[in-house]
Fold these 2 entries.
Entry 1:
Amino acid sequence: MKEVIKKINFKVLSVSFAVFLLIALLCISIFSEDKTDQSLAKKVSVSAMAVSDDYSESSDVKGFTDSKIKLSLKSSINGFTLEYTAVQNSTNYEVYRKTESETEYTLVASTDKTEYLDETVKSGETYVYEVKAVLNQDESHINGVYSNKVEKKFVKFDKNKKMVALTFDDGPDKYTSAILKCLDKYDAHATFFVLGSQVKKFKSDVKNAYSIGCEIGSHTYDHINLTLLSKKGIKKQINKTDDLLEDIIGHGATLVRPPYGYVNSNVKKLVNKPIITWNVDTRDWQTKSEKSTYKNVMKEVSDGDIILMHDIHEPTKNAVLKIIPELKKQGYQIVTVSEMAEYKGITLKNGKVYREFN
Ligand code: ZN
């Protein structure tokens, strides 16, 4: 009997000791979290002060995860539209801009809105933007928080001249960077319908494509026939790719090209973006021939066309390096799908299929 009582006592003791240990651990973890938060706040306040004194020093707000304001940029006929997230207690937002050759940022706008259209940009010039939310001074001396930086080249097109949209599926891949270099050289834009699974491996190409003014569309995550998927499955393919893109360029894909061009009513409803197919098929994936890819484009091209190619094949890359200068020589403006729609006065609608703008 005594032994049983002893045993029970020992059990009670060890259980209460375990509970005590747990509470102690919890306290320590809460306390240390507090400490980290405090030191972080101090760091932000110091960096904000330093940057406000001399704007040529860049803020320590790097990447989207650490940024207090999320800035994204869209190109339009009239210039760049900047959109940024609101900051609580902010009195106004200051838009800073610099060109590639400038070392210091210039204040281009001070506004209480969370959207700004910069119409003073010049064609062929690359700009870097950063937005600061101005806060009232308080004891911690935080007088502003900064957004991520966004770099983009502006190219102005003429709506009265003929235009064509080159589109690339299944990438990015090892040939994408050579295509980007050529596009940039000729002030040309293209639309890349990327696979989420490839985006992971070629992040810098996606960023670079966006920076030179190209458009990033979605070709799903796994290159899957969307019409065979459940509603949940379709959404997953789109959202997973968008999440990856958001981390790299600040927003998800603007357009969707379903693999194989397969679309049904569920796909139209659930992708929630304009659906872009094509009217000129180079069949580059089949021929894997530089000559026939080049010929197929130059033989069929006309104003308002959407041309399908794949930046995962070397012969396609080689053909594109010749197609771009030749199209320019023939007076074509090489634009993104969204630019072509806008310049031709078409408002793209979510869930609607477009195959050309003739
Ligand atoms: Zn494809």
Entry 2:
Amino acid sequence: MAMIFTPKPTPVVEIAGTDDTFPVNRIYCVGLNYRDHVVEFGSDPDEVDPVFFMKPADAIVANGVDVPYPPKTNNFHYEIELVLAIGKQAIKISADQAEDHIYGYAVGNDLTRRDLQMEMKELGMPWDTSKGFDKSATITAIHKASDIGHPKEGRIWLSVNGEIQQDSNINKMIANINQIVAKLSELYTLEPGDLIYTGTPSGIGPVIRGDIMEAGIDGIDTLINKVV
Ligand code: MN
């Protein structure tokens, strides 16, 4: 038996300091993982827990590559996030085992059609069309944990056209890195190649064509993409 067409190549992310690449399997995302963002999102941080959702692997956009303004939205938002790269299968692991399964870290932007998300939120319906669309996940190179360790704190920020819009610290996450990996490993079989976007702090807002989004996390990397 033969495949009836040639499958698309597996999306990959560069690995910093090497000529190697990280083949992407699944992209998991955490929503509502910073208290100040939960408040600006219109929810009560004492009433909601962080939520999980996914994007397709081919939503990846590399650092420096332009992002097309997506269709069917008039409110296209940035969300700066710490990204984990899974390097070893994880099934029902505990939080204190999580670091053994993390290959490295990157800086990512969970791009969002906010108008569609708010409509779906209002209806109590899934967020998929607002989150899992084409080219909705920008990302820097992955930095190996064996090079940079497992970051527990550090400034996380994003600017649009040079003006700071988001400015927080990754130590303010509600569910920390290890808890996120443990929790996801109860819901799914985490595999090498999985990426996890870990949620955004407050300051979310819109971008339009021509805007430059620049973002970073201290000790990891800086991410720049233009909206076209
Ligand atoms: Mn997000």
